[in-house]
Design goal:
heterodimer; A: alpha+beta; B: 6 helices
Amino acid sequence: MKVRALAIVLALISVPAAADKLAPVQQPAVQVTCDLIEIWGSHGKGGMDAAIGKSLASRLTSTLKQTEFKQLSTQSKTIEKKKPTTVKLGKGSATVNLIETVDRSQARITVDFTAAKGIKTSAQQLVSGNDWIVVAANQSKDPNPDAHILAVSCK
Amino acid sequence: MAKPSDIELMQHADGELDERGSAQVRTQIEREADSRTKVESLGQMTELVRGHLEMSADDVPDRRFEAMWREVGHAIDAEAPTGLWARVTSWLDRHRGHLLTGAVSAGAVAAIALMLRPGDPETVVVNTGGGIDVQPAALRLAPVIEDLETPGGNGTVLNIEDDDGHMTVIVVTPADTVEGI
């Protein structure tokens, strides 16, 4: 009887302690998917590249001085939280880092853009899903400079 | 001392009197022949009855005793389970305590083994598909630039809001360079 009771007590004590040593807790990955569109803006007559989406195209036209926009590259990357992802562009590179997501509808990200001629920009922004961050690096101080443009949208 | 009654003589003969009473009766028996005769008669009668009972027991045939034991055995066997399943459940009932002890002990050993085993250093990350929810344009919060660095250049920030949502435009212009200085 004593042996039986001891065995039962031992089992009751051991099971909860062993629970921590069971298969490691699996944490769901926090990540976003970002679209990176590289564009070259100039002062030509070519207008807007048809490959650029209408929503982005109209905004670029209304915001920037350039009159001709040509898409150089487009990529879609899944970026995990706190795992900066570097993307090689046609004329430069960009590193996107997801710091955190906020309220499941916003992302706090940093965009480090190394444009043509080595012009660097680093921006940290809290942005909603499908909204755009555009960095336009003018290539000179001329009145009508070309611009190396990077547009980033995450969801 | 008064003459002992017949009942006292019978109790004395059967050893039912205490020491004091028995001593008194013995004293009277030694004095009175009548009492002595009665006690002797009682003793003889007792011997006759015992002898008769023993002789009666010896007269019971062995076959009858054997038949009695057979009946006892049959009664025991009648309670024994018949059939395979009945025998299995009967065995389990008899050994239930031992089985329970064994099962609990096995569970305790397994738990201890889990505790002592080396931990798996790898943590499996589950890709849930993640992402952030895309709200309707009208419900999205305005973006907030928390930090901006434009080394070697000047930055201008423009915020646009329309039916398609928000867009932040950062225009970077190279800083002035003075040649020859």
